[in-house]
Amino acid sequence: MAAAGSVFLRARGRTLTAFRPDAEYQWKGPFYFIQGADPQFGLMKAWTHGDTNNGDDEWGEEIKLAEQAVQAINKLKPKPKFFVLCGDLVHGMPGIRAVFSGHYHRNAGGSYKGLEMVVSSAIGCQLGQDTHGLRVVVVTEEKVVHRYYSLTELGSHGIEKELLDLLAKQK
User: Fold this and answer.
1) Which residues, 6+ apart, have CB-to-CB distance to 34 below 8 Å?
2) 78: preceding bond cis by omega (within 30 degrees)
3) To the nearest 5 percent, what fractions of the chain are helix, strand and coil?
4) CA angle in degrees (0–180, nearest 5) for 116-119-121
5) Which long-range contacts (CB under 8 A, 24 or more apart) does 129-133 make?
6) Residue 131 DSSP symbol
7) d(CA 156, CA 62)
8) In 3D, which of 21, 22, 56 has the Cα closest to residue 41?
9) What three-state secondary structure class fits 22?
């Protein structure tokens, strides 16, 4: 659990208090931020083996470097205004079957050569006919199954039996 006063507790009522419009509207002076790029978990082993299409099953070295980056940033004084991470987060993962995203504010998707693209509608403003909701994604060794639930439905009925049964089979 985040300690009181941490950035994780500042986001309340759809507002991140670290960036209040009234406080940020006028120029207050110079600041800095940190930009990181391409942790690309899995690439280091693939690259050292000379086969960037395979070998992405080990992430240990990249995880250590990502942790080192966070530790270095946390030691900085003064603290940066924010941190943004760009580029490739992962080099690849064996058996990717679906990619999940949002930002379209409606449910959408499709598939191409066995890869499913799933776009989940918004918790907030709806730009289509979907209700405010969340997508539950169950991952088993054999498949990825997902369902979009309205906030009301999920809150009052929970996850449907079919998805719960998939989880029970894995134990």
Assistant:
1) 73, 76, 80, 82, 83, 84
2) yes
3) 30, 25, 45
4) 155
5) 130/106
6) P
7) 41
8) 56
9) helix
Q: Residue 84: phi, psi to the nearest 5?
A: -125, 135
Instruction: Of 81, 132, 85, 88, give the one whose Cα is nearest residue 106.
Output: 132
Q: Looking at residue 170, what DSSP letter applies?
A: T
Show Cβ contacts of residue 105 under 8 Å, excluding neighbours closer than 6 positions. Answer: 121, 122, 124, 125, 126, 127, 128
User: Residue 106 corresponds to which tokens in the numbers above?
Assistant: 């409606």
Per-residue pLDDT tens over the stretch 106-122: 999 999 888 899 999 99
Strands 98-101 and 108-112, bridge-based pairing: unpaired
- pLDDT over 50 at 12, yes or no: yes
Q: Provide the whole-model pTM.
A: 0.53
DSSP state of 17: G
If one counts every other C-beta atom within 10 angstroms of the C-beta of residue 1, the result is 6
- Rounded CA-CA distance 99/118 in Å is 6
Q: Mean pLDDT, to the nearest integer, of 3-12?
A: 52
Residues in Cβ contact with 127 at an 8 Å cutoff, skipping those fewer than 6 apart: 104, 105, 106
**What pLDDT does residue 149 have?**
94
Which helix (H) or strand (E) element contains residue 81?
none
Measured at the alpha carbon of residue 104, what is the angle toward residues 103 and 107, in degrees to the nearest 5?
115
Residue with tokens 């058996």: 95
